[in-house]
Structure formats: C-alpha cells, structure tokens
Specification:
Elements lengths: L1 E10 L3 H12 L5 E4 L15 E3 L8 E2 H15 L2 E3 L3 E5 L4 E6 L2 E12 L3 E3 L2 H4 L9 E3 H10 L7 E5 L3 H12 L3 E6 L9 H8 L6 E2 L2 E7 L6 E6 L12 E4 L2 E4 L3 E3 L2 H5 L24 E3 L10 H20 L8 E5 L3 E5 L2 E2 L5 E7 L3 E10 L2 E11 L5 E5 L19 E6 L1
Parallel strand pairs: 1-2, 1-8, 2-5, 8-19, 10-17, 11-12, 11-17, 12-13, 20-27
Antiparallel strand pairs: 3-4, 6-7, 7-8, 9-18, 14-15, 15-16, 20-22, 21-23, 23-26, 24-25, 24-27
The chain binds flavin-adenine dinucleotide (FAD).
Length: 422
C-alpha cells in the first residue's frame, strides 16, 4: 500500500473542503491534499441547478454549480492538489487516512485532518413508514441527482413528505418538468425549511403545504400506486379516521439531514447529542488532537455562504495549529438554554473573540437572545422573528466574558448560556 506524509488532508471537496483548501493555500500551507469520492469537486452544489446561492458572499444569486465553480477555479489557480474518485474509508485517532482509489489503497499520515464530508439524508427506513416496498420512493437529494445530473424523470404524480428545503425545491422542479405535485405534507405545525422556499417553490406554483400531516401507508407492488396521509395530534401521532388515500407514482422524502459520521466515529471523535456532528471548540477542533471539522458534517447549514465562511475560519485555525500557535483547548462550556435547539461551539477558551451558531427550538416572535456568563448577561439581541430553519450567528467578544466567571487554576469556569425568550 502506498503511503504519503502530508501537512493537511481535507476529506470532501464540497463548499467546505474547497473553501478550507483555498484559504489554507492563501495562508501559505502548500503541503495539502483534498480527497473527494465523486469524479468532480463541488459537493452537493453540483446537483443544485436552482439559483439563490451566494447572496451574502458575492451579493448575487448564483446557481449551485456557479457558486462551487468560483472556488474550484480559485483552487485550480492556486494549484490545490485534488484527488477525485478517492473515497476515504478509514481514519484513526493518529490521523492516518486510508483512501480507496482506482489505483488501489493509499494512506496518508497527516499533521491535521479536516472533516468536510457533508451530510446524508434520512431515508424511509429511519421513519419506519408502514406499507409495501414498491419502487418510486426517493429521498429528495436522490431525486434531484437523477433529474439534474442524469437527466432522468423520477415520476409523473408526486407527493412530498417533509417540508425541508430540498423537498420544496424538488416540488418546484417536478412541477417545472411537467409532473403533478399533489402536495407537501409536514408532520410539524410549521414548515421546516426557509420561508423564501415556501414562497418561491410552493406558493408561486400553487402547491399546497399541509402542516400537521404525515404519510401512514404506502401501496403498490412493483411501482408505488398510492400513499395514505393522515392528520397528526400535538404529540405527532396520526389521528384515527383522518386518513386519505392519494394516487401517485412517486413519494419524495425530505425529512432531515444527518452529518456524515462514519469516519468521525472511527477516529473516536465525540459527537454533539443534538447536531450529531462533532463537538468542537471555537477553533473547530474536535475532541481528537489535530482533527478539525466544518460545513454540513459539523452542523447542517441552510446557506452555503456560511459554510464557506466557517471553513475559512477553520483554515486560519489549522494554519495556526501547524505553526504551533493555537491556544490550549477551551475550558468554558457553552450551553443551549431556554428556546435554543443547539449552540456551537460547545466549548471555548474565552481568550479570543468567537462566533456562536445556533438554532431556535421553535418558531417565535419578538424574542430576546441572551448570552449569560455566570451571573452576568453579556449580550442581548432582539429578534422580530426566529425560525428553527434559519441559523443564527452571533459574535462574542472575549473582553465581554465575565472575568470572575472565567475560572482560575483552582476553580472550574462557569458555563456560557444562550437562551431565546419572549
Ligand atoms: C438540495 C439542496 C439544496 C440547497 N439549496 C441551497 C440554496 O438554495 N442556497 C444555499 O445557500 N444553500 C443551499 N443548500 C445548502 C448547501 O448546499 C450546503 O450547505 C453545502 O453544500 C454544504 O457544503 P459541505 O461542503 O459541508 O457538504 P457537501 O456539499 O455535501 O460536500 C461534501 C463532499 O464530501 C464528499 N465526501 C463525503 N464522504 C467522503 C469520503 N468518505 N471520502 C471522500 N469524499 C467524501 C462528498 O462526495 C461531497 O462532495 C442546499 C443543499 C441541498 C442538499
């Protein structure tokens, strides 16, 4: 087996891996390789032919391939070493990376590894939908890949389960390609994707969004023939007698994304109980020395612009790690308080300014985001509206942390708590 030493190995050439590699090159880190299992870089953006990417970063609305293309071009100019068709199949705590390539297995021994593997979709198995197992049931991303990358129509009459962004985007895509989309059925009492997608993908095309509904049965032997949808109660349990059978040949599932964890787990990286991605500090360090994470493998992002930004911040930390100038690991725990689904990083040192990313637990109006450290409230921001679909990002200045709560040799530092309350 061929073995090589590298300063940095980046796993995944989606927006996170691309932005990290470009930023590292600009910071003078030359000895790096980006490993991508697909035949081309770009990640999930390659199949996202709709526009809406890059509004924050470039101030214009780009398609997914256009957005990724800007980073791919820059990476090419800087001479970033990409290995495509290279699936990473092993990672250990000593940063030994095992890769399956067409030429055989290759291993890299890296000073730093960047996890940028993105996320995967929840499938029918994860939901345990009863009924037969005909063809015609797709996750939204798979249907999108068939239609946008392989020019294959997935069906003629569709029902969408789940109002995640990809499901709503596929409702519009199927309609534009001449399919009938009967409706989008969401188990929660609110849409789980962005309001702009509800407006632009459903309302503009007259596609109904049915909240507090789920699919309770599938019929069909070879191909799907119908699904039964039912209303759910406040505990998300189907209400008997509310079932309605809908003839269709396609069911699209858009019911959540989970960070791609196989390699993180192999390396012994500790995972966050809510995000299911790695637990990191403000320098994107995981619990394993020299392994860093950013992008959807860390937390599922709604906007790619912030994926790129996060990966660039990670690159600065990795460059400092290589130079031996990164401060020791953080001792202040960061906790999600009332109204907050999760908050990252999970731990900070408190010596340098940092950014918190968080999501609201439920939709709410006129709320105050409060960050408290020990007894002191160190920041309050008012929001007219918060939605779980929209990630919130807040800058925290190290100077604002309560000195008395920051801990000392003998005392454990008090946690930082973030809450969203009316
Ligand atoms: C359908 C869809 C629509 C979206 N629409 C929008 C939008 O309109 N606007 C917007 O701003 N954002 C949108 N997003 C979000 C945005 O695309 C993502 O946040 C972004 O792509 C995440 O980047 P990433 O690099 O973390 O992951 P990805 O793009 O998923 O890239 C991960 C890469 O890692 C590779 N990989 C994984 N495992 C391995 C392995 N073991 N070995 C080698 N390579 C590996 C994968 O092949 C992939 O190329 C959308 C996302 C989806 C899924």
């Amino acid at each position: 087996m061929k073995s090589e030493k590298k300063a940095v190995v980046v796993i995944g050439a989606g927006p996170a891996g691309l932005a990290a590699a470009v930023a590292l090159k600009k910071l003078g880190v030359e000895d790096l390789v980006v490993l991508e299992r697909e035949d081309a870089p770009g990640g999930i953006l390659r199949q996202c032919i709709h526009d809406g990417f890059g509004l924050t970063r470039f101030g214009e609305s780009l398609s997914g391939p256009e957005y990724a293309g800007r980073f791919v071009d820059e990476a090419a100019k800087l001479g970033v070493d990409f290995r495509t068709g290279a699936s990473v199949i092993g990672l250990d705590a000593g940063r030994r990376v095992t890769v399956a390539t067409r030429e055989g297995l290759v291993t890299y021994e890296a000073e730093a590894v960047i996890l940028a593997m993105g996320c995967r979709e929840r499938t029918r198995g994860a939901l345990a939908i009863p009924g037969s197992r005909p063809s015609g049931v797709y996750t939204a991303g798979v249907a999108q890949a068939y239609m946008n990358l392989h020019n294959r129509m997935v069906g003629r009459r569709a029902v969408i389960l789940g109002s995640g962004d990809i499901g709503m985007i596929m409702a519009r895509r199927l309609t534009l390609e001449g399919a009938a989309v009967e409706g989008v059925y969401e188990i929660l009492p609110h849409a789980s994707g962005l309001p702009r997608n509800v407006a632009q993908c459903l309302d503009d095309f007259g596609i109904p969004l049915r909240l507090s509904h789920t699919v309770v049965d599938l019929r069909g032997s070879s191909r799907l023939e119908s699904v039964t949808v039912a209303r759910v109660d406040e505990n998300l349990i189907p209400i008997p007698g509310t079932g309605r059978e809908i003839p269709c040949d396609t069911l699209i599932l858009s019911v959540g994304l989970i960070p791609e964890n196989e390699l993180s787990l192999q390396a012994g990286v500790a995972l966050h109980p809510r995000t299911r991605g790695p637990l990191v500090d403000e320098f994107f360090r995981t619990s394993v020395e020299g392994i860093f994470a950013a992008g959807n493998v860390l937390q599922v992002h709604d906007l790619v612009d912030f994926v790129s930004l996060e990966a660039e911040n990670l690159a600065r930390a990795v460059a400092r790690h290589l130079a031996g100038s990164l401060p020791a690991g953080g001792g202040i725990e960061v906790r999600a308080g009332e109204g907050v689904g999760y908050v990252l990083p999970a731990r900070v040192g408190g010596k340098e300014d940092f950014t918190l990313s968080l999501r609201a637990r439920r939709p709410d109006r006129d709320v105050a985001l409060r960050i408290s450290h020990g007894e002191r409230i160190i920041k309050t921001i008012k929001f007219r509206r918060v939605l779980p679909a929209e990630m919130l990002r807040v800058q925290v200045r190290a100077a604002d942390l309560a000195p008395s709560a920051a801990g000392s040799e003998s005392r454990r530092p008090e946690p930082l708590e973030v809450s969203l309350t009316c």
